[in-house]
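Q: what sequence does this backbone want?
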């Protein structure tokens, strides 16, 4: 009820009660003092009654307010329910090179396309592919070369790449200059270390062939991934194989400088492999083509943002680290390597982000067939499709003038 009407009714009620009290007092009470007291009590009763009475219900007001509140909440609820859950696994622990994914999530690129993207850490490329094959995840970041081996063993659950994330693989042999290994040929007769499922280790026979050394002349020591750099620093092995983005920060953290380390990249020694890609099971691709297309587009938008401002990308990854165990200096080293060798290359200038050169891809596939001794003979078309990539104009490298330096 409006405030003026409420006040009028209150006054009218008070006057009526006072009149009744006055009439009673004139007949029965002769004491003016008692009459005053009685009138005071009556007034208090009237005011109390008016103040404690149930508040009038304003139907018009409620009907205007409630729907407004409901309308504000409904789209959020409806949109959340409409989003398609997409489970993604990383190749290993979350690192700065995963910045495109984190940035795309933070900026809502996936949600704009109707996807609710969540991710979990990986435990190495082979393990990631295995879990993708079981259906535990919808998409994953790993390499096509391990996927080739998986496909041969699981012909009914084949995996395919839908975008090349790293134009060059970070596969490498790392050693300390103090060990006297100054070229790949010097690895002959040495002790190398790596986890059993390490991709570069599995491809080492091809690396050895290209380097004119006998792969059998090398002795391998197996350890957990987290101990790889320690084995080299402690002199338990002469060199290690692995992703340079994983191994290099550990060596630098162990007190070494870039001047203390020799790095032999596979793609500089006859094995011009691609790095990690966005992978999915063929069955998932067939059943969810629009989901795959939307995810690839969102990820590549995030990648373009990271290339423009890698410092912001690095900061986004650090902010997403709930464990607070990530080291920014180490992650900066990874990002520097990725920018210089994996994300920005002359080929990417031509084929665009996410693309691949068919001839180069075919050659590396044939090398993998030999290196892994596969009996199946997959082609480039079996392992990679570009049909889910956005148009080339939408996935170009940002101009060099738009790329800020990493801080």
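A:
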């Amino acid at each position: 009820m409006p405030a003026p009407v409420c006040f009028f009714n209150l006054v009218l009620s008070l006057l009526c009660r006072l009149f009744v009290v006055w009439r009673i007092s004139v007949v029965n009470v002769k004491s003016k003092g008692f009459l005053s007291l009685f009138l005071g009590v009556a007034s208090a009763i009237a005011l109390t009654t008016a103040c404690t009475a149930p508040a009038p219900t304003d139907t018009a007001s409620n009907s205007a307010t409630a729907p407004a509140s409901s309308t504000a909440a409904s789209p959020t609820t409806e949109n959340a329910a409409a989003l398609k859950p997409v489970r993604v696994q990383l190749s290993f622990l979350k690192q700065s090179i995963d910045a495109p994914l984190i940035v795309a999530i933070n900026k809502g690129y996936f949600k704009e396309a109707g996807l609710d993207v969540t991710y979990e850490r990986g435990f190495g490329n082979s393990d990631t592919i295995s879990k993708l094959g079981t259906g535990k995840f919808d998409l994953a970041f790993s390499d096509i070369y391990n996927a080739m081996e998986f496909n041969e063993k699981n012909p009914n659950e084949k995996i395919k790449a839908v975008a090349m994330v790293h134009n060059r693989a970070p596969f490498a042999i790392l050693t300390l200059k103090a060990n006297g290994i100054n070229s790949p040929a010097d690895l002959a007769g040495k002790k190398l270390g790596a986890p059993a499922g390490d991709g570069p280790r599995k491809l080492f026979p091809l690396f050895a062939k290209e380097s004119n050394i006998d792969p059998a002349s090398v002795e391998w020591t197996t350890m957990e991934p987290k101990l790889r750099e320690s084995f080299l620093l402690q002199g338990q092995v002469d060199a290690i194989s692995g992703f340079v983005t994983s191994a290099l920060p550990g060596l630098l953290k162990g007190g070494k400088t870039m001047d203390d380390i020799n790095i032999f990249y596979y793609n500089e020694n006859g094995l011009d492999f691609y790095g990690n890609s966005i992978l999915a099971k063929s069955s998932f691709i067939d059943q969810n083509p629009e989901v795959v297309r939307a995810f690839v587009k969102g990820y590549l938008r995030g990648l373009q943002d990271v290339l423009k401002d890698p410092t912001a990308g690095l900061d986004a990854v650090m902010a997403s680290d709930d464990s607070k165990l990530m080291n920014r200096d180490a992650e900066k080293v990874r990002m520097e390597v990725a920018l210089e060798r994996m994300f920005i290359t002359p080929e990417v200038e031509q084929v665009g982000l996410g693309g691949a050169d068919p001839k180069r891809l075919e050659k590396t596939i044939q090398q993998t067939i030999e290196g892994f001794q596969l009996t199946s003979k997959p082609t480039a078309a079996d392992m990679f499709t570009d049909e889910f990539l956005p148009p080339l104009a939408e996935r170009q490298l940002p101009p060099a003038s738009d790329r800020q330096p990493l801080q």
